[in-house]
Specification:
With about 550 residues, the chain is α/β, with parallel strands linked by helices. The chain contains 17 helices and 17 strands. Strand 1, helix 2 and strand 2 form a beta-alpha-beta unit. Helix 13 packs antiparallel against helix 14 and helix 14 packs antiparallel against helix 15. About 45% of the residues are buried.
């Protein structure tokens, strides 16, 4: 063999060895606290799993393929044999979950809603299980799984159907052999300590990366990571029903509580308290947070072709069947919300009853104040496991990765366009502490960021109005309109600005704005109202 060929072969062998060593080193650095599960029968399921594992630097050995039905439902016996059992075996064999062989389950514990007396877990390195697109989400009711004594439960809880996620979350209690019927008390519900959520407490954080299409799931993964760079920024929208009494008031209290958390933290927050859900003509721009109830399927402004969810947005609509299907972009709620651009949500595969649904005040306070990850906050907010809740989104996603002062400094150093949102938050926080609007106006007017920020121009317009400076307000709104790249923000500004221009003898400018609006938004739900205002300005009969 010629020397040149020998040299080439030697170099190839050397490079191959170096690549193998690099690959081994990279794999050894992968996180091993997360198990990623996909459906072997769906190529798209494995693609999602590999993409997620790569983006989150999860050890390749912690990616597990199982042969599962390609439907959203799975029979109880198939769940036990084809999903729960192999996952448990994998965790035991890998040493990720070890049980105390001397643990004795108390005979007195027979039903899953009775609570967990102690833990059978000896050691555990596993903390998260992520179920990927293609893994069934619902365990079907099984009449053959009758359990003596089930009649002791309230009638509505005499069911063994459940969401796969929150059933699998109870794996650490497998040695207890608790009953399948009814909900099981969540031992970490309401916790303020994120580190407490884990197998030692009887809980594994199980979430799913699922949506109507695999490409939507990929976007969810990427958007969560994008938002984590400088945190989640945008506007918050909450839709209550205005209830003041009755058994459903608790749901309204949760929505209001979440809105209070958002507003207290300086978010630009809108709370609707009318009995109906948000109307079709309700304008929503830069949606970072949404929570509302109660309609059976996606409705109102969410039926628009394009929604302005920011990367990392968390959206939740409380309804008993909000996750009856996840793989539809038009039915129920979770699928359409994700298809429109939301990054994470929660839902219910079947009737959970209000008392077992997520408490939104807990969810949002843990996410925005305590710095929990999405998975941690979700499990802190759910009163019951082994029941109907499904958690959809990257459980590692942290919408508030660092404290506000740190993020603000980082954004300024990086020249991030998101800095305008941080200034907006500072303005709102100062207003909440009682700082006079005039002082806040002075702060904004001295800021260079105001000159290029449509968000801050819109905010200072509101402050000018509060101070009675109408012409300054109009000037700021016009500036915001010229700077904005958000169609929904433009729509909101036009519908606020045009009538004021007409009021202050600028009818021609108002007419021009209304015409621009009707051209830009031909499908606007309240188009007739806008047309009537335009006709009135032009002197046309209605």
């Amino acid at each position: 063999m010629p020397r040149r060929c020998q040299w080439i072969l030697s170099m190839v062998a050397c490079l191959t060895a170096q690549l193998a060593g690099l690959r081994a080193a990279t794999e050894s650095l992968g996180r091993s606290d997360t198990l990623v599960v996909f459906n072997r029968r769906m190529q798209e399921s494995e693609s999602v799993a590999r993409h997620y594992a790569r983006r989150r630097h999860i050890h390749p050995k912690m990616v597990l393929g199982l042969s599962l039905p390609q439907t959203e439902t799975i029979l109880r016996k198939d769940y036990a044999e084809d999903l729960e059992k192999p996952v448990l075996q994998f965790l035991r064999k890998s040493g990720a979950l070890q049980f105390d062989s001397d643990f004795k389950a108390p005979e007195a514990v027979s039903f899953s809603n009775s609570g967990v007396p102690g833990s059978a877990v000896k050691t555990a390195s596993i903390r998260h299980i992520v179920l990927c697109y293609g893994v069934p989400s619902q365990i079907v009711e099984s009449s053959s799984a009758h359990e003596p004594g089930a009649e002791k439960l309230p009638t509505e809880f005499r069911r063994n159907a459940a969401a796969v996620d929150t059933e699998l979350a109870t794996l650490p209690d497998e040695p207890l052999k608790l009953a399948l019927v009814g909900p099981r008390r969540n031992p970490v519900f309401g916790t303020t300590n994120a580190a407490a959520i884990g197998p030692a407490k009887g809980v594994i954080i199980v979430a799913r990366l699922d949506a109507p299409t695999p490409s939507i799931v990929t976007n969810m993964i990427d958007n969560a990571l994008k938002a984590e760079e400088f945190g989640l920024w945008g506007r918050a929208y909450f839709d209550s029903r205005g209830l003041t009494n009755g058994s459903y008031k608790a749901g309204d209290d949760w929505v209001r509580s979440a809105a209070r958390v958002s507003k207290t933290l300086g978010w630009e927050t809108a709370l609707d308290e009318s009995p109906d859900t948000l109307p079709p003509g309700y304008i929503m721009s830069h949606i970072a947070l949404y929570a509302g109830w109660y309609h059976g399927s996606v409705c109102g402004p969410f039926l628009q072709k394009q929604m302005e969810f920011v990367p990392g947005a968390i959206a939740y609509h409380l309804h008993s069947l909000s996750a009856s299907t996840i793989r539809s972009d038009s039915q129920s709620w979770v699928g359409p919300l994700l298809a429109k651009g939301a990054t994470a949500t929660l839902g219910y595969v079947a009737e959970p009853y209000l008392q077992t649904t997520a408490e939104l005040g807990v969810l949002f306070s843990r996410l925005l104040i305590a710095g929990f990850s999405f998975g941690e906050a979700a499990y802190a907010s759910i009163p019951a496991l082994s029941w109907q809740t499904t958690v959809i989104g990257d459980p590692h996603y942290k919408p508030v990765p660092r404290r506000h002062p740190t993020l603000h400094s980082e954004m300024e150093l990086a020249g991030s366009p998101l800095i305008e949102w941080s200034y907006l938050r500072l303005v709102n926080l100062n207003l909440q502490t009682g700082m006079p609007a005039a002082n806040v106006i002075g702060f904004l007017e001295s800021s260079d960021v105001l000159k290029t920020s449509p968000m801050l121009q819109e905010k200072i317009a509101d402050l000018y109005l509060r101070e009675g400076k109408v012409f300054d307000m109009i000037k700021a709104q016009e500036k915001a309109l010229s700077l904005s790249t958000s169609p929904q923000q433009k729509a909101r500004i036009i519908l606020s600005l045009a009538p004021r221009l007409a009021l202050y003898e600028r009818e021609k400018d108002a007419v021009k704005l209304y015409k621009e609006f009707l051209t830009a938004f031909p499908d606007y739900a309240d188009k007739k109202v806008v047309q009537d205002k335009l006709d009135a300005l032009e002197g046309k009969p209605r």
